[in-house]
């Protein structure tokens, strides 16, 4: 247990555990929290895990946590670690099992008033069009050549197959493709898991939501994002499915003995399973992780394709097509350059449950957003608000990272023990929120009581300058798997 007196308050939204707190720490720990949230951050092992992150070879400046921090595998969810490429490590556990779990937001030209009588039909159509649930298979079966194409080229491959347009590439982090992906680094077993799951949602906290833009906070940025109050948007939350899970599993199994026996790396928790980034095995994992990330972007795009078809089936061309606002990852490892001690330094930025949030003029964001910053998509818990934010230049201190959601406060098992799925469904219906589901147990797992208050989380990153509030989204229909 970490004594609260050992944690220094930097300002109203930032706290620090100094480097001298534990002798094996290489850098201080920094946590973005409000005063109220600070009192609740000792309920699990997440702060201890973050201190463990600070001990990793090559880590620079700080081990960082966002306000949605909670306990994860090896490192906390909501964590960021920037590791020097030259002599640092890479860790599958610090990316997570669901590689490139992330968010995609589709926007329409329609208002709630225009589609109101058809929301039930739209939600039912989406539920029928998109395969949901654990192990659920896709409507398309990929050949060996096709799965390798998805792993190598991501959304670019789907565009060649007619499932995406050029604007889908442009409005996606990294244009939906990490160029260092090498499908030979992915096991046959992982590929076989991915062949039948492209365009599927999965289970757990993954969801689709039909939403209304309830409030615009910044008119200028909202105009650049083409968002307006009353507008209908559709949010997609999912990742790389069984393929990404298998990639992580394969490399964890390989790296644990390598870390201990070959590279003699000492870490507080062997679940970090880290190896030197520039080693052959480190580079192989980096390539495999990129393949899984490309698969995830393609997966969300394929789901968007199904949603687009459903939208057109329900409304025809009277309300126009859906277009992508943005697609952004929150479980990923990428190479980025930063000025450290007056020298440009190449870093391997691990984001686990943290969203990239580049500010204005950054070369990696689409031209149409360069004047205002990268779109940031933050989902809430079931039945609560979600948010669109914009990246800020002031987020450089967090390596241009922000939160990824509201963050859990209890396990799925505990949520099922304390909440009734059917009761939650009834409560959502009373709020005039349509719920489409396959299993009420999945509703209980994702009960609002299992999560932090997303409004408070977003307040922290907004006030800390990590990302700027642009619009608040309210759910009209929730579509979930198992």
What descriptive keywords fit this protein?
482 residues, alpha+beta, eight-stranded mixed β-sheet, 25% strand, globular
What does this structure look like?
It contains 15 helices and 19 strands. By secondary structure, the protein is α+β, with helices and mostly antiparallel strands. The strands form 4 sheets. Strands 7, 8, 9, 11, 15, 16, 18 and 19 form an 8-stranded mixed β-sheet that branches. The model has no long low-confidence stretch (mean pLDDT about 95).
State which percent range the strand residues make up.
25-35%
Number of strands: 19
| Radius of gyration from CA coordinates | 21 Å
Mean pLDDT: 94
Helix proportion range: 25-40%
Sheet with the most strands, sense and barrel status = 8 strands, mixed
Derived structural class? alpha+beta
Poorly predicted runs of 5 or more residues: none
Counted by DSSP, the helix tally is: 15
Task: Give a brief rundown of this model.
With 482 residues, the protein is an alpha+beta fold.
């Amino acid at each position: 247990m970490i004594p609260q007196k050992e944690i220094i308050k930097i300002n109203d939204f930032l706290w620090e555990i100094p480097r001298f707190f534990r002798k094996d720490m290489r850098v201080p720990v920094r946590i973005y929290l409000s005063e109220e949230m600070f009192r609740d951050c000792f309920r699990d092992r997440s702060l201890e895990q973050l201190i463990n992150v600070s001990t990793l070879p090559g880590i620079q400046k700080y081990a960082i946590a966002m306000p949605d921090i909670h306990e994860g595998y090896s490192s906390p969810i909501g964590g960021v670690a920037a590791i020097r490429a030259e002599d640092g490590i890479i860790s599958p556990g610090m990316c997570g099992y669901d590689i490139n779990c992330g968010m995609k937001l589709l926007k329409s030209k329609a208002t709630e008033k225009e589609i109101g009588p058809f929301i039930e039909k739209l939600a039912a159509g989406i539920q029928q069009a998109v395969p949901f649930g654990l192990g659920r298979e896709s409507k398309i079966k990929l050949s060996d050549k096709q799965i390798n194409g998805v792993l190598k080229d991501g959304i670019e491959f789907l565009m060649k197959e007619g499932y995406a347009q050029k604007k889908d590439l442009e409005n996606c982090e990294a244009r939906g493709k990490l160029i260092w992906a090498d499908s030979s680094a992915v096991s046959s077993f992982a590929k076989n898991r991915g062949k039948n799951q492209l365009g599927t949602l999965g289970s757990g906290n993954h969801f689709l939501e039909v939403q209304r833009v309830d409030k615009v906070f910044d008119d200028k940025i909202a105009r650049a994002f083409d968002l307006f109050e009353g507008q209908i948007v559709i949010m997609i939350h999912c990742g790389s499915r069984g393929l990404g899970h298998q990639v992580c599993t394969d490399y964890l199994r390989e790296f644990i003995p390598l870390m201990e026996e070959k590279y003699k790396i000492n870490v507080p928790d062997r679940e970090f399973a880290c190896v030197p980034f520039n080693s052959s095995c480190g580079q192989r994992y980096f390539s495999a992780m990129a393949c899984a990330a490309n698969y995830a972007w393609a997966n969300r795009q394929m789901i968007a394709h199904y949603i687009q078809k459903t939208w057109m089936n329900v409304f025809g061309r009277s309300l126009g097509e859906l277009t992508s606002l943005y697609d952004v990852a929150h479980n990923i490892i990428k190479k980025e350059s930063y000025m450290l001690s007056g020298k440009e330094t190449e870093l391997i930025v691990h984001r686990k449950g943290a969203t990239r949030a580049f500010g204005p003029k950054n070369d990696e964001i689409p031209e149409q957003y360069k004047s205002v910053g990268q779109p940031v998509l933050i989902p809430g818990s079931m039945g609560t608000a979600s948010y669109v934010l914009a990246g800020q230049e002031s987020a450089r201190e967090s390596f241009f990272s922000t939160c990824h959601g509201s963050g859990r406060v209890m396990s799925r098992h505990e949520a099922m023990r304390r909440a009734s799925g059917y009761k939650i469904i009834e409560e959502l219906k009373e709020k005039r929120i349509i719920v489409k589901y396959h299993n009420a147990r999945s509703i209980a797992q994702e009960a609002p009581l299992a999560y932090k208050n997303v409004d408070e989380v977003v307040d922290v990153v907004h006030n800390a300058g990590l990302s700027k509030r642009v619009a608040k989204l309210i759910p009209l229909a929730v579509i979930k798997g198992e």
